[in-house]
Design goal:
The structure is a single chain. With 303 residues, the protein is of the alpha/beta class. It contains ten helices and twelve strands. Keywords: Cytoplasm, Exonuclease, Hydrolase, Membrane, Metal-binding, Nuclease, Nucleus, Repressor, RNA-binding, RNA-mediated gene silencing, Transcription, Transcription regulation, Translation regulation, Transmembrane, Transmembrane helix.
Amino acid sequence: MSSQMSATNFNLLGANSLKDEITIKNVWNYNLHEEFYVIRRVVQKYHWVAMDTEFPGVVARPIGEFRSTADYQYQLLRCNVDLLRIIQLGLTFMDENGRTPPGCTTWQFNFKFNLQEDMYAQDSIDLLQNSGLQFREHEEHGIEPLEFAELLMTSGIVLMDNISWLSFHSGYDFGYLLKLLTDQNLPQEESSFFEILRMYFPTIYDVKYLMKLCKNLKGGLQEVADQLELRRVGPQHQAGSDSLLTGMAFFKIKEIFFDGNIESTSGHLYGLSTYVLVYCARIITINVFSSSLFCFVRQQFYF
């Protein structure tokens, strides 16, 4: 896997084109420390962090009674994040105008993952392989989660009130990040999850949630990017490229639909913390037990 992907940069808000290059840098265990050294300097000026993760899919579903659809969705998230390992994390840094730093703009962290030992959903792995992920590299040169978490804690981008996080349909993304940072399974209650989330990430904007408030925006990340006439840099379904496109989409939406006033939408994650009518689900078959929560495991998974 090549260490860098480049393409011509441009002004996210549609003014003059920039001549700098956007660079997505792959980070492995052998260059982890040196890249965090660079990040600690970048974040001093670029306080908006767009984020995306790649993970091994969904292999389990919770059973029992749930207070709402949002409660079910959180328990589904918790069950799978507890069972599975993160594969990739993309971080893109921007300033308050959506401009990226010169040189490297996006870091793509590649975590240790072993197809022979770790659990996954085959369709998700197929998608990632078709997008260019090379799992032999992850097995041999992947980042150890604990080492990454220690560096992230001292990076200046978590636990900071002046840092704004940008994401897209990001319950799972932040679930995996919290699992990394705490080295623990996710809390059983969604309210506790949000308490911890706000501590590590005080300001979060979820582009998918913002789309609910915007007329005529719909679909996934690529679809909304097409509607906003944004150009992707790098392969789809890789965390670095997706994080960059997420940041671009946020600033375009902020400009067009919110006239720059978007603070009231902070803290909402699409699909979570939206309590509606009580929803109950019961599944009799129990195949796996995880973190005091019974989960029904789909037939197609591997470990």
